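FAQ: What does a ligand-bound record look like?

Like this one, built around calcium ion:
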Amino acid sequence: MSKGHVLALSGGVGGAKLAAGLAAVLPPERLTVVVNTGDDFEHLGLTICPDIDSVTYTMAGLNDRQRGWGVTGETWQAMASLKALGEADWFNLGDRDLGMHIARSWRLREGESLSKVTARLTQSLGIAHRVAPMSDDPVRTQVQTAAGWQDFQQWFVGDQCGPAVSAIRFAGTPGARPSAAFAEGLGRPDLAAVVFCPSNPFLSVDPILAVDGVHDALLGLSVPRIAVSPLIGGKALKGPLSKMLAELGLEASNRAITNHYGPLVDSLVIDRTDAHETAALQGGGHTVTVTDTLMRGPDDQSRLAREVLAAAGVEY
Ligand code: GDP
Ligand code: CA
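The answer part, i.e. the structure of the complex:
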């Protein structure tokens, strides 16, 4: 068993739950959570980082579990005001959430890097573990639909993922360098494991893998690289993953997930409802752990985090 450092790669809501679980069972100096910034966008003069926000709220215990996203105890007065003023209302901005966007936006405008701002905001909310953007250079996910290339949030929120996606690209890559914390995490001599959180592989993890040098750095590691599947019973819990698998002509199974990550991942954690896939996945060369991967709350998050660490041979 290793007592080393764990590098977790996360998107928003799904990834955040496991990131919070890992933070509950590992001391701050043994975990770095690297977050997708491909969903980031400018809206009403604000820089919004949806996945960093999801991770921050969840790790701070401030996430709204009923709604499934955003901050608990949210109100919507500012949104109503914006609407009355005739401003864009396709993207929901809660009052509490706005505080986050304002704090981030003005610090960025003052010249602070996204890494520095993210460290400041997470620490202010009591998060002791390191949370870092994948890059301080802007990366913007775009999807190709029948209407051509579209910015991610326009499709995801504006069109509610309706139009079929035929391709995805990450504007700004190549050329986006890993953030200092990400580069340091990948190069640590005491690195014990890389955990791919149960995030959307196409929309949340691929942008992280598209950051300069990341793919090759992961390929060159000799520590366990373990992915928790976002599929339960062959389906995504929420979000466009199931729809995208079908549109991209891929089967709705964990085989599609391991095929997608290829040699970057050597170990997979799947849900009990998908246990029938175990032999096939093992035949493909993967180590497989079967457990309950549904995270209903902090207890599930910590339990799954412990199981992931145990499967990766990491002490907690
Ligand atoms: P987003 O950026 O907010 O869309 O979130 P992510 O990309 O991080 O996560 C979306 C994925 O998380 C979806 O495909 C869900 O199936 C998956 N997901 C959400 N909650 C859970 C959970 O409790 N367990 C597992 N295994 N997957 C989950
Ligand atoms: Ca996201």
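Follow-up question: can I read anything off the structure? Yes, for example: The longest strand covers residues 5-10.
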